[in-house]
Specification:
Blueprint lengths: L1 E4 L13 H7 L1 E4 L7 H8 L4 E4 L8 H6 L5 E4 L9 H6 L3 E3 L6 H16 L2 H9 L15 E5 L3 H12 L3 E5 L14 H7 L2 E4 L13 H6 L5 E4 L8 H9 L5 E4 L19 E3 L8 H20 L2
Parallel strand pairs: 1-2, 1-3, 3-4, 4-5, 6-7, 6-8, 8-9, 9-10, 10-11
Helix pairs in contact: 5-7
Length: 306
Amino acid sequence: MHVSIPDDYPVVLATSAVFSALAGRATLAYFDSLPSSEDALIERIGDADAVLNIRASSSFRARVFDACPRLRLLSIWGTGTDHVDLEAATLAGVTVTNTPGVSARSIAEHALALLFAVARRIPELDLATHGGKWPRGSGVQLYGKTCGVIGYGAVGRRFSELATGIGMNVKVWTLHPDRYPGMDFADLHEIYETSDVLSVHLRLSAETAGMIGAAQFGRMKESTILINTARGAIVDEAALVAALAAGRIAGAGLDVFAHEPIQAGNPLLTLGNVTLTPHCAGITPEALEAGLRMAVENIWDWEEGP
């Protein structure tokens, strides 16, 4: 079986325990850099039967599928499929798989860490203390506060458990309430208006892109902290910057951005009420190995058939 790995950068697959097993069972076309263009991606896929996709920056659109007629499987490391034209994949006869749930605990823990960092102003206090200062009394207690959770997939459920565990009053909204009979979900407007913390746990889709914008920030309390470990494009970044700069909301903890890597000159980099991390919430050794192993096993499962 011919498998292409067109985008292992920064390198995670080649240093994993599962890589040698993959190399021992398939012929690999392996690249430890990102393809510079769609043409480069097509060239790297070549006549592969399957692609093991590492980075969401590689975009799989109709032209890619049309140019790679032997391709029959796209195995994604990760949950999101917003970088894949699923309709075009279906038309081309390409099966698309992902690795749902394996990073849920890691991402939920990271979201909680961002929340503590913003609420207790940890980066600012750390910097001041290292500089010989001794600032006092600037943190916010989270116990008893209202936490709005937008999205109730594997990550949203785990984050809800963590927020409940530290004594927060959790309210949840989901696109799919019918999947959870007996659950009492909140209205989205209620979540915007009452939450002291708002944590986003949705997939990016046409339905969710830009769903949190100026109008939604206008409904929030000035004390609200926004946490986003899902996808940057779910939040209107310009509206978020405006809300943060004007003190319309208290702060934000962000692991994801509209354009990644975040570019020099992005105003988020200059705001003191924001804690930023480089889209790494799901990258712990435990989650990394579990996800890569599942992505490889998805290839074997597909090869072996029903």
